[in-house]
Amino acid sequence: MRIRWTYAFADRPAARLADACAFWTAATGTRLSAFRGDGGEFVTLLPEGADPGVKLQGVTGGEGGAHLDLCTDDVRELTALARHLGAEPVADHGDWAVLRSPGGQLFCSVPWHGEAVRPPVVSGSRLDQVCLDIPPSRYDAESAFWARLTGWDLRAGSRPEFAVLRPPAGLPHRLLLQRLDEERPASAHLDVACADIAAVRARHEELGALAVREGAHWTVMRDPAGGTYCLTGRDPKTGGLPAGAG
Fold first, then answer.
1. Which homologous superfamily is 3-111 in?
2. pTM
3. Is 152 helix (H, G, I), strand (E, B) or coil?
């Protein structure tokens, strides 16, 4: 069993799903698939000449956030491994399952449908990372869980509070593990790798996003549906930090 592909999900309030769709299709240079689900709550962003890697979900409880779908040849085997490592089952949909990590982060085990070609860099950026925001008391255990579940390479990040899980070449998303400085429920957000943060920020603001605050080499943004995400100063082709960044 191995993870063959990943999908980064932006979870947004169902009442604002149309706003999220308009923004993220424009920001990523994609078009929408047909809507799916009992309430039309799921939709995929379809790139040209590549396989999709981003989906949106309209949620009815809370403000949303983000989560990761792990695609595999054997959903039952991946689900069993996740439970063995401490994940809790949330919902069994037959050919796919929803689980909760030991730290409280939702994710899904889903079948792989042959996806193999990463979405391209668009206007100097690529949505290529899901950041897990983990409270200090859960950080070590949660990091170990995701490293064992994925089998990916766990490396120190650019700052003490970060660690990075790097997937095998060709997969569309990395996992950034961020240790929070306060005790609160685990959550997740999306990260966009940018060759030039200022240029991408200006483009996203034209599309209706708002800047929230700036960090060492990232800018926190809020999309028109109210969800937060980050523009990060990384190479959108490789996902790595530019030379000399700390």
1. 2,3-Dihydroxybiphenyl 1,2-Dioxygenase, domain 1 (3.10.180.10)
2. 0.95
3. coil
